thiopurine S-methyltransferase (Chaetops frenatus), 196 residues
Amino acid sequence: SDVGSQKDRVVTEEEWLQKWEMGNIGFHKEQGHPLLQKYLDVLLNGRSGLRIFFPLCGKAVEMKWLADMGHSIVGVEVSEQAVKEFFSEHSLPYCEEPVSEISGAKIFQSTSGNISLYCCSIYDLSSSIVGKFDGVWDRGALVAVNPRDRQRYASLMINLMEKNSSYLLVTVSYDPNKHKGPPFYVPESEIKSLFG
C-alpha cells in the first residue's frame, strides 16, 4: 500500500513526552469523540460492566464517561503528566504504585477502582499483566504508532482481546506524501491485513 514517505518515519518516546511537556497536544479532545457516541452500541453490544482498553490513552475524557456508565477502564500512556492531568481534571482521587512486572512502570488507579492507567510503553504490557478486554477504543493509537511497529501493535491488541470483544478504530485519510505524520495514514487494506 502507498504510505508515501511515512513508512520509515519514527517518532520517539521522548518526542511524545516533549509534546505533553510543551502542551503541544492538538490530538487531545476536550469533548467526547462523536464517533464513540455514534457507535457506542457496537462497542457495548448490549453488554454492561465491560472491561474497556484505551491504548495510548493520553487524558481521554471518554475514559471517565464510560467509567461513569459502570464499565472498568484500563489505559496505557507513556506520559505520567497526561495520566496525572486526567485524574486532576476530573477531580478523581487516585493512588499510584509501581508495576512489579515492568521495570520503571507505574499504575495509577482511581480510588473507586474502575479506572486503571498504566504509565509505561504499550509494548511492555501483556495479557498476563493487564488481563483481557471486552472492548477497545482506539481513537488515536494505531495512527500514532510508528508505521514499522504496526504489526507488533496489532498482535498485542489481538492478544488483549476476549473472544467476543469489539474494537472501535478511528483513522484519518489523507495523502501521505503531503504530511509526515503523526497521525499516520493507515490505508483500509492495511487495517484488514493487520486485524483480519
